Amino acid sequence: MLSKEPNVLIHENYMQYCLELAKKALNNRDPPLGSILVYQNNIIGEGIESGKSTGDITNHAEILSVRDAISKGNREELKNATMYSTHEPCIMCSYLIRHHKIPVLVFGISVDHIGGSTSEFDLLGNENIPKWGSKPHIIGGILSEACQELNRLFLDSL
Q1: Do residues 21 and 36 lie in contact, with contact meaning Cβ atoms separated by under 8 Å?
Q2: Which residue from 45, 83, 133, 144 lies 20 to 30 Å from 77 (Cα-Cα)?
Q3: pTM flag (> 0.85)
Q4: What contacts 57, CB < 8 A, 6 or more positions away?
Q5: Which residue among the candidates 46, 62, 77, 88 is catalytic per the annotation?
Q6: What is the bridge-based pairing of β-strands 34-39 and 42-48?
Q7: How far apart are CA 82 and CA 40, in angstroms?
Q8: pLDDT along the chain (158 residues), means of 10
Q9: Phi and psi, residue 58, nearest 5°
Q10: Are 60 and 47 in contact (CB under 8 A)?
Q11: What are the strands, taking DSSP E only, across the chain?
Q12: Which residues contact 28 (CB under 8 A, 6 or more apart)?
């Protein structure tokens, strides 16, 4: 379930950073996705979508932000971090979020058909897998117009 959040300005500031990362992905001819993990007001991990340019489908921005956080020694902090992403995480990335028990997800735009929350494959909202624990708090629509504009630029370049 998506919700509105009173800390919109804070979310917008972090989403601006994600948009800068997304522009880098776009410049590499990848879909414009950027993702960060924030713990105690510090960015502990970041990722730039690179699945297309590297030929490795697992190089989604969200996965790379988690890998970055872990490589910096922040595995335990994931359980108390907020993930920001320009796009709703896909099913693969949603599994990652649930596995690491990331409690808050903030994204810009929804992803039709394969979104981990808004599609028929609601991994982010599923509470039937006991080891996953509580579902994350999800906030969508942050800077959605800017995220959508980058998406349009990518689609126009195909």
Answers
A1: yes
A2: 144
A3: yes
A4: 51
A5: 62
A6: antiparallel
A7: 9
A8: 66 97 98 98 98 97 98 98 98 97 98 95 93 94 98 95
A9: -80, 0
A10: yes
A11: 2-3, 34-39, 42-48, 82-87, 104-109, 137-139
A12: 48, 50, 53
